Amino acid sequence: MHARHDPYVSLRIPNFRWYVASLVAFTLGTQIQAVVVAWQVYELTKDPLSLGLVGLAEALPFISAALYAGHIADRHNRKQLAVTAMAVQTLCALTLLTYTVRPHLVELGRVWPIYAVMLVSGLARSFQQPARTALGAEIVPRETYANAVAWRSSLWQFAAVIGPALGGMLYGFSGARMSYLAEAVLCGIGAVLFGRILYTRRPAVAHDNTGIAENLTVGIRFLLKQKELLGAQVLDLFSVLFGGAPALLPIFTSEILKVGPQGLGILRAAPAAGAVVMSVVLTHRRLRNAGRMLFLAVAGFGLCWIFFALSRSFWLSLVLLALSGMLDNVSVVIRSTLLTIRTPEHLLGRVSAVNQIFIGSSNEIGEFESGVAARLLGAVRSVVVGGVLTLGVVGVTAWRVPALRELDELA
């Protein structure tokens, strides 16, 4: 018989409240940046590939440094590392703001300075995320991991709802300068709030005193031994790589649905709005039949993007994107909870870094793939093909990893 489920147990912990408050503020800032950079770059180039290059510029340093960043997160003060990385990302926002004060730096068809900022931002994010994720597991008791992950995801998605809409509105009504100023302020607040967490670094595990070469690969070796966790990571990687095309939303917004940057902000917010709804549901109930739910959710995610590509109605597109966010959030919560529960605390930084490689590959490399596919096939056809490939990935993973399919309750 299960003990009474307390949906707010992790929020009763002061350090966790500072943690999620920082997460919300910082996510608001970075989501504003994502919308404004995408619209600004497409407005300057009118080239789908340029949207893909934004993702690639951020993904390459992010993925390249991820293993070393995980090693550093497990060997050094995770709080200091995360705050330093947040400060660098705040400086990136201020640099984008400088470009609006000196517009000659970014002119028609000349967007490499923006790519350079995204490169530095990606490098900082590579160090920030494993440190922040690992610290998030340290500040709550192990028995509350599932609840903490659900709340962390819910509040992140809440910020991801408001951020794109706010970015689209700010850019549409006030221009890039006000948008980047708001981003810089929010990122700075996020860093300050994270600094309020009371944290003392725990001593290193004695048997973990191995050389750096071995430490860089220990997260990969651990993940390869966890079939269900590896299967969930692979499923998420390829489904988002092929099935989601948020980088192409400026094309659908301006050329197919015929709405401006305000419409782009609303569409960018729709998946996160759906995810917030699903996150609240998941925090108030135990997650049973997790494996089956995971496969059904990812298959539904792929179908949503297929129908979105074929839609010519703004409102239908909005509903489909919201539904895709609801389904994607099921995958996020299951994968994140599984990773936190199955990973020893002293390996959390390195395993989280490997997890970030999967996420970075699917999101940022996915943006590049979407840009290339859109140039070759057209925006609509490329998204339809990607959705079909997602369904194929679901089938292959269900066949090859039956243990994941049979996964039941996450405690």
Labels describing this entry:
mainly alpha, 16 helices, 411 residues
CATH level-1 class? Mainly Alpha
Looking at the overall shape, the CATH architecture is Up-down Bundle
Name the shape in a single word.
Answer: globular
Sheet with most strands: none
Helix content: over 70%
Number of helices: 16
How widely separated are the two ends?
13 Å
CATH-assigned fold name: Growth Hormone, Chain: A
Computed CA radius of gyration, to the nearest angstrom:
20 Å
Category from helices, strands and their pairing: mainly alpha
Strand content: under 5%
Mean pLDDT: 82
- Number of folding domains? 1
Spans of at least 5 consecutive residues whose pLDDT stays below 50 are none
- Strands, count: 0
Order of helices and strands: HHHHHHHHHHHHHHHH
Describe it for me?
With 411 residues, the protein is mostly helical. The protein has a single domain, classed as Growth Hormone, Chain: A (Up-down Bundle). The chain is built from 16 helices and no strands. It is globular and about 50 Å long. The two termini are 13 Å apart.
Quick take:
The chain has 411 residues and is mainly α. The chain contains 16 helices and no strands. The longest helix has 32 residues.
List the helices and strands and how they pair.
Blueprint: H1 14-45, H2 48-64, H3 66-75, H4 78-101, H5 112-138, H6 145-174, H7 176-195, H8 212-225, H9 227-243, H10 249-256, H11 261-283, H12 290-310, H13 314-342, H14 348-377, H15 379-400, H16 402-405
